[in-house]
Amino acid sequence: MRAASAHRLQDLAQHIAGEVRGDAEYLITGMAPLDTAEAGDITFFQASSLRSCLQSSQAGAVILSSEFADDFSGHCIVVKNPYAAFAKTMQYLFPVARSEPGIHHSAQLDRNVQIHPEVRMDAFVKVEAGAQIAARVWLEAGVFVGADVQIGAGTHVYPGAKIYSGCRIGERCVVHAGAVIGADGFGFAEENGKYLKIPQIGGVLIGNDVEIGANTCIDRGVLTDTILADGVKIDNLVQIGHNVQIGAHTVIAGQTGIAGSTRIGSHCRIGGQVGITGHVEIADNCVIAGQSAITHSLRSPGVYSGVVPAHEITRWRRIVARFDGLDTLFRRVKNLEKNSAHQASTDGEPFHGE
């Protein structure tokens, strides 16, 4: 991808706090993957399994760590964290276009809304009474903003996203197309074989620098808010139930479902298609592998994985109980084998049949 203008390697190195090895005046005109980069392109490297690609790369410059600097004969920028430096370089070379403020003539604004003069609203945006929209917010076509919603400065809401009444979104957030924030949680009480709807009168509280993927749904709380803390990143097609709380800088991959009232700590990484039952707690710094089923609290940091196929409930509980005893059973068998081998050695030569 070509950048809008050329940049000296030294300027990029200063931006990402790296050290140039090679020609500091070399001009970077674009970015490309390691295996397709050409002269003028900058790329990055951090996977040792791709070392041969680094050695043969035609890139103009590579962002890498010091342990691999000697594997590339061209210009490079040496940093501690190549992947993070790559992200910063992309932001530098391809800055997000600033929106021009203005309200499209087809946008509908109810009375008593507070709209900063620097807001941009595209076609067919709807903003209900009492909403507060801060500076540099960009609402793209077809966005719905419910009554008394608050949206912080610099937030970008993509086409067709829906933000229900009473929800609050912080500064510099990104809400992608089709996301729904603040729909009713799945709350029903059974009586005589029928289900009574439980009104969901809480809201959704989203911190600063949060990103919410396309078609993700974040349900409003029953009595109190569903909460996403600062820096949370949510992929596409994620379901977050009512009264869930997600700690700062946790990332969640696509098609994960989190049932109501679960609390997830900070700096967790949750893979795709993970299912998390309701009313559990997950400690800070937990990593959960894709397609895992979390049915109980994870109270210690660590890496977790595991899926048990569905069975009739009584059999399933028996299987799980036996899983828990497998390690003990394994140790008992190993001890039996060890004792048996020792007994055989003390009884003399083993018998060999004719």
From TrEMBL:
It comes from the Bacteria. GO terms for biological process: lipid A biosynthetic process. Signal peptide: none annotated. One of its GO terms (molecular function) is UDP-3-O-[(3R)-3-hydroxyacyl]-glucosamine N-acyltransferase activity. It catalyses: a UDP-3-O-[(3R)-3-hydroxyacyl]-alpha-D-glucosamine + a (3R)-hydroxyacyl-[ACP] = a UDP-2-N,3-O-bis[(3R)-3-hydroxyacyl]-alpha-D-glucosamine + holo-[ACP] + H(+). One of its GO terms (cellular component) is membrane. Pfam families: Hexapep, LpxD. Its EC number is 2.3.1.191. SUPFAM superfamilies: Trimeric LpxA-like enzymes (SSF51161). Pathway: Bacterial outer membrane biogenesis; LPS lipid A biosynthesis. Residues 27-91 form the UDP-3-O-[3-hydroxymyristoyl] glucosamine N-acyltransferase non-repeat region domain. The active site is at H242 (proton acceptor). Keywords: Acyltransferase, Lipid A biosynthesis, Lipid biosynthesis, Lipid metabolism, Repeat, Transferase. It is an enzyme of class 2 (transferase). Homotrimer. Catalyzes the N-acylation of UDP-3-O-acylglucosamine using 3-hydroxyacyl-ACP as the acyl donor. Is involved in the biosynthesis of lipid A, a phosphorylated glycolipid that anchors the lipopolysaccharide to the outer membrane of the cell. HAMAP family: LpxD. Belongs to the transferase hexapeptide repeat family. LpxD subfamily. This is UDP-3-O-acylglucosamine N-acyltransferase.
